[in-house]
C-alpha cells in the first residue's frame, strides 16, 4: 500500500466485548481514521500510532532471531514459568497454550479476577443468559446493575437498547438502573465527523448512557450485595420488614420487582469488573437466581457485559483445549511472559524474575529482559474473537500494512528451539 493512496473499509473493533463490526475506517499508508460508527475506544484503538518497533534484549535493539533464541534459553532454564496478560485473539491464544504445555507453564489472563467472578457462579449453580441480538429484539425491561456499562461497552445502548427490535420498539422498552449514577464517558457514532475523531475531543460528560432510564435507584457498588438480595427476595414473593436497603426505598425496589414480573422478556445485566468487592460472585448469583425465579412465571435472562483484551476468547479456548477454566490464583513463578496485543495502557505485574514481553510495545517505565513486538489483530493482521455474550465468533481484518510477525509465528519459533 502506498503512502499516498487512501482506502475505506469496514472493520471489526476488538476494543471491547461488543466487537462492533460496522466501524468504517479509512487507511492512508499506515494511518487509520475512524469515520463512522465509532466510539472513544474504537478511535483510540484504530488511530494508535504505527511506529516501527525493534526486538530488544535489556533495552538494546537486536535481530528478531536473536531475541527469539534468548527467550528460548530463558524458558529452558525456568522451572515455573507464568504466561500472563494473554491479550490476544483465538489463534494467538492457541499458540500460547501449546507453548505452555511444552514448558509446563501456568496461564493467567490480565482480567482473571473479573472472569472468575462469573465463572464461580456458572460452576456452582449455573445460569440462564441471553444474547445481544435477543436483547435488541425482545427485551422490554432491562435492569442494569451498576451504571458504568457504557464505560466498558460504549455502544451497548446505541446498538441494542435505543433501537427498535423485531418484537419490541424503543418507546416500549424500559431501562432501570441500580447502582452508581455518575456519568460515564460515552459518545454515539452519529456524532463522529467525516474527518474522524481523536480521543482528546471526547468529553468525560458526553452523552450519558442512561439518559433514557425510566427509573434510577442510586447506590454505591459496595451496597449492591444488599440491594440484589433484597430484589431477589421481593421477586420471589417474600415480605421484607425493612423500609430501606442501602438508602433505597423498599417501595421503589418493590416497583422494580413488579415491573420484572409483568415483563414479557426481562434482562438483568452486569459487568463483573465493576463488582470489585469481597465475594462479588454472590452478588452475581443473586442476579442470576432472580432470573431463575422470574422464569417460573414469565421470561427472563441474564446478560454478561464488559469483556476486553480477548478475555472471553481466552477463557473459551482454554476450556475446550484443557477442560478447565483459566486460573485466577496468585501464582509463584521464576519467569514471567507478558503478552499484550491490544491495550497499550496495560502493564505487566511487578516481578523480580526475568520478564519477557510479547506485544504491541514495551511497557512504559519498564525494560524487559526481552521484548519482541508482534502484530495487532484487527490492525496489522487478521484474527478472530468471541463476542462477550459468547454467541458468535467474529473475524478481525487486517487494515494496514505491517512487517511485524504475528504472535503465533513468534511463539512457534520459540517452541521450535525448546
Over all CA atoms, what is the radius of gyration? 23 Å
Across the major sheet, the strand order is 5-4-17-16-15-6-7
What is the total number of structural domains?
2
Determine the structural class based on helices, strands and strand pairing. Answer: alpha/beta
Catalogue the unreliable spans: 183-210
Assign an overall shape: globular
Summarize, please.
30% of the residues lie in helices and 21% in strands. The chain has 418 residues and is an alpha/beta fold.
Describe the structure in your own words.
A hairpin with a 2-residue loop joins strand 4 (56-57) and strand 5. The protein has two domains: 56-111 and 310-416, 3-Layer(aba) Sandwich (Rossmann fold), CATH 3.40.50.740; 124-183 and 204-305, Dimethylsulfoxide Reductase, domain 2. It contains twelve helices and 19 strands. The two termini are 37 Å apart. The strands form five sheets. It has a seven-stranded mixed β-sheet with strand order 5-4-17-16-15-6-7, with helices on one face. Strands 10-9-8-13-14 form a five-stranded parallel β-sheet, covered by helices on one side. It is α/β, with parallel strands linked by helices and 418 residues long.
Main attributes of the structure:
single chain, 418 residues, alpha/beta, Rossmann fold, Dimethylsulfoxide Reductase, domain 2, 2 domains, seven-stranded mixed sheet, five-stranded parallel sheet, 12 helices
Topology:
Layout: E1 6-11, E2 23-28, E3 31-36, H1 40-46, E4 56-57, E5 60-61, H2 64-77, E6 81-87, H3 90-103, E7 106-109, H4 112-124, H5 132-138, E8 141-145, H6 149-152, H7 156-161, E9 174-179, E10 215-218, H8 224-235, E11 244-245, E12 248-249, H9 250-262, E13 266-271, H10 280-294, E14 300-305, H11 311-322, E15 335-340, E16 355-359, E17 370-373, E18 383-386, E19 393-396, H12 407-416
Parallel strand pairs: 6-7, 6-15, 8-9, 8-13, 9-10, 13-14, 15-16, 16-17
Antiparallel strand pairs: 1-2, 2-3, 4-5, 4-17, 11-12, 18-19
Helix pairs in contact: 2-12, 3-11, 3-12, 4-10, 8-9, 8-10
Amino acid at each position: 500500500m502506498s503512502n499516498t493512496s487512501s482506502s475505506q473499509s469496514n472493520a471489526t473493533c476488538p476494543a471491547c466485548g461488543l466487537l462492533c463490526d460496522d466501524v468504517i475506517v479509512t487507511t492512508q499508508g499506515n494511518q487509520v481514521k475512524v469515520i463512522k460508527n465509532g466510539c472513544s475506544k474504537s478511535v483510540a484503538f484504530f488511530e494508535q500510532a504505527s511506529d516501527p518497533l525493534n526486538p530488544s534484549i535489556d533495552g538494546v535493539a537486536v535481530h528478531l532471531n536473536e531475541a527469539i533464541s534468548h527467550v528460548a534459553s530463558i524458558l529452558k532454564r525456568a522451572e515455573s514459568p507464568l504466561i500472563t496478560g494473554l491479550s490476544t485473539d483465538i489463534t494467538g491464544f492457541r499458540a500460547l497454550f501449546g507453548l505452555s504445555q511444552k514448558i509446563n507453564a501456568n496461564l493467567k489472563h490480565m482480567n482473571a479476577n473479573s472472569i472468575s467472578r462469573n465463572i464461580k457462579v456458572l460452576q456452582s449453580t449455573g445460569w440462564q443468559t441471553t444474547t445481544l441480538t435477543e436483547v435488541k429484539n425482545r427485551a422490554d425491561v432491562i435492569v442494569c446493575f451498576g451504571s458504568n456499562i457504557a464505560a466498558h461497552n460504549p455502544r451497548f445502548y446505541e446498538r441494542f437498547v435505543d433501537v427498535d427490535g423485531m418484537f419490541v420498539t424503543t418507546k416500549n422498552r424500559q431501562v432501570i438502573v441500580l447502582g452508581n449514577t455518575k456519568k460515564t464517558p460515552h459518545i454515539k457514532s452519529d456524532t463522529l465527523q467525516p474527518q474522524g475523531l481523536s480521543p482528546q475531543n471526547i468529553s468525560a460528560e458526553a452523552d450519558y448512557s442512561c439518559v433514557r432510564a425510566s427509573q434510577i435507584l442510586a447506590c454505591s457498588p459496595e451496597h449492591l450485595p444488599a440491594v440484589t438480595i433484597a430484589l431477589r427476595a421481593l421477586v420471589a414473593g417474600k415480605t421484607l420488614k425493612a423500609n430501606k436497603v442501602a438508602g433505597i426505598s423498599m417501595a421503589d425496589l418493590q416497583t422494580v420487582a413488579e415491573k420484572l414480573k409483568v415483563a414479557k422478556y426481562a434482562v438483568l445485566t452486569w459487568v463483573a469488573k465493576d463488582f470489585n468487592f469481597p465475594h462479588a460472585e454472590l452478588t452475581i448469583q443473586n442476579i442470576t437466581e432472580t432470573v431463575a425465579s422470574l422464569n417460573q412465571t414469565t421470561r427472563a435472562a441474564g446478560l454478561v457485559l464488559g469483556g476486553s483484551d480477548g478475555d472471553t476468547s481466552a477463557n473459551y479456548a482454554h476450556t475446550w483445549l484443557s477442560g478447565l477454566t483459566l486460573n485466577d490464583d496468585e501464582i509463584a513463578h521464576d519467569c514471567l511472559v507478558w503478552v499484550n496485543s491490544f491495550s497499550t495502557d496495560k502493564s505487566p505485574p511487578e516481578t523480580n524474575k526475568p520478564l519477557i514481553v510479547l506485544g504491541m510495545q514495551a511497557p512504559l517505565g519498564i525494560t524487559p529482559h526481552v521484548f519482541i513486538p508482534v502484530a495487532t489483530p484487527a490492525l496489522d493482521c487478521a484474527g478472530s474473537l468471541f463476542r462477550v455474550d459468547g454467541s458468535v465468533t467474529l473475524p478481525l481484518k487486517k487494515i494496514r500494512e505491517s512487517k511485524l510477525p504475528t504472535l503465533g509465528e513468534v511463539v512457534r519459533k520459540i517452541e521450535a528451539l525448546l
